[in-house]
Amino acid sequence: MVGNDRSRADADAYSNADAGGLPKLFVFDLDGTALGGTNRPYARLPGTLCRLLDELAANGCAWATDTTWDVKPQMQLVHASDVASRPAYLIGGAGLQLCAVNGDECVPVQPYTDTMNARLEEAVRKELRPFMQELCGTFAARSFSFNGFWFAMTAADESAEALMNAVERKAREASGLTIVRVPEENRFYAHPAFLRKGTGLRALLEAGGFRPEDVVVAGDEEMDLDMMRPELAKHVICPSNAHPEVKRRVAEMNGVVGGKPYGDGVVEAFRALAEARGWTLQGG
Asked: Which segments in the chain show pLDDT lower than 50?
């Protein structure tokens, strides 16, 4: 795979760095993991996390995101935050996009990007668009949105029960879609099933030459479990607000659950993991 020569060289340098036993890559989710709580609106990364990211970069550990956000607003978030370092990679759209970062420029990694875009076009045409048209033409909605790969809909009160039942049936039938119901809020979201966070992370490891034993991943929701697997990352952490299944995975992999929610909990968990593993952060 190719993205950008300078970014590849930087990633190789990270991989070969003598970082006092530190991992070579830290990957984290945004919504509910790095961001949340008093940090709304999501205008910037919390200061505690920014300081950790800069410490890691100064010690030879690269950092990256793996989220549902598009890559462009991710970079805008970085620019608005008090972080001096820059991510080595950004993964967006739940694995749809993978970009190497060269300074402030995002360079799509190829052939991964073209391959995923072609798969998306086919999945939207064959499955997601017909699914959207059927539901929007049948049920009253309070709101709905579609960004090209992610469809979300909240039912109007009078159609809530019928819509949730229909979505439950569709979730069993539509093998090419991932459909997640949130019945307590009368809403659901759907996207092509091939969009998985672990897919993007696997491609990142290949592009940057990183090994699973050199990777730490932080997540909070069930979607993040796909990137919190030992064949992709040997070290996993989460904040206190994480879903019970995420906390269970962290415990199974001998990771750390932070005592605080969101970004502050991620930082707490990372520092506790570093202490447990004997990793040294010079200047931290």
From this structure: 1-19
Q: How many CA atoms lie within 13 A of 79 on its CB side?
A: 11
Domain residue spans of the chain: 5-113+195-277, 114-192
pLDDT tens per residue across span 52-98? 999 999 999 999 999 999 999 999 999 999 999 999 999 999 999 99
First to last CA, the chain: 34
Encode the chain in three state secondary structure: CECCHHHHHHHHHHHHCCCCCCCCEEEECCECCCECHHHCCCCCCCHHHHHHHHHHHHCCCEEEEECCCCHHHHHHHHHHCCCCCCCCEEEEHHHCEEEEEECCEEEECECHHHHHHHHHHHHHHHHHHHHHHHHHHHCCEEEEEECCCCEEEEECHHHHHHHHHHHHHHHHHCCCEEEEEEHHHCEEEEEECCCCHHHHHHHHHHHHCCCHHHEEEECCCHHHHHHCCCCCCCEEEECCCCCHHHHHHHHHCCCEECCCCHHHHHHHHHHHHHHHHCCCCCCC
pTM over the 0.85 mark: yes
The domain defined by 5-113+195-277 folds into Rossmann fold (3.40.50)
Pair of tokens at residue 42: 């999501």
Q: Please report the pLDDT score of residue 6 as a whole number.
A: 36
**Residue 284: predicted pLDDT:** 56
